[in-house]
Amino acid sequence: MWNGKHDWFDSSRTASCGRCALLAPYTRHGLYLFDKHSLMYKVKMFDNVKKINYFNWNAWTVFVIAIAFLISTPVLFVLRSIFSDTGEIWSHLASTVLPRYLLNSFILMVGVGSGVIIIGVGAAWLVTMCRFPGSRIFEWAMLLPLATPAYVLAYTYTELLEFYGPVQMWLREVFGWASVNDYWFP
Questions:
Q1: Cα three-residue angle 71-74-77, rounded to 5 degrees
Q2: pLDDT band for position 27 (50/70/90)?
């Protein structure tokens, strides 16, 4: 314990550790401790930890790098095309469709981000903080979209929401719409 008068700890609460006397209860935690002479002494906490070799070239490393290269190939080709001579393609795109594409992408980004924040965070908070019938099922059910690849979900949503899908057929039946011109559905 600190006695308030000197630069050392009370010797009644210390134990010998070879070079100096340290606080016995704290020596096993790897903390910075003061010795009798007010010098910083560090208890060696990581003596048995091996140094990590960051460049261990085994079969798994080569395999993972090859897979990462294959996955990133489309992105690398797009980045390469930015610096190549494309002639009038970019000026044509910028004058015709690029502003609309950028605006649509921005609206989609804001909409999806807002929906995820409102619905996702709200549902996660509700399931975590409240206990109600079925809350344990919802804890696991909210992880299911992470287990399904995005393209499978995209095909599923497309099939459900297309003109001959069940959602639009139900809407036409309920509201009496006869053709695509009677309503707008994105």
A1: 135
A2: very low
Confidence at residue 24, expressed as pLDDT on a 0 to 100 scale: 43
Range of the domain at 23: 1-49
pLDDT in tens, 97-122: 989 999 999 999 999 999 999 998 99
Tokens describing residue 157: 């949503």
133 domain residue, yes or no: no
Cβ 15 vs Cβ 36: under 8 Å: no
Number of domains into which the chain is organized: 2
Is the Cβ–Cβ distance between 109 and 124 less than 8 Å?
A: no
DSSP assignment of the chain, as one string? Answer: -B-SSSSSB-GGGEEE-SSSEEEGGGGGGT-EEE-TTS-EEE----TTPPPP-TT---HHHHHHHHHHHHHHHHHHHHHHHHSS--TTHHHHHHHHTHHHHHHHHHHHHHHHHHHIIIIIIHHHHHHHH---TTHHHHHHHTTHHHHS-HHHHHHHHHHHHSTTSHHHHHHHHHHT--SGGG----
pTM value?
0.41
Residue 181, domain member (yes or no): yes
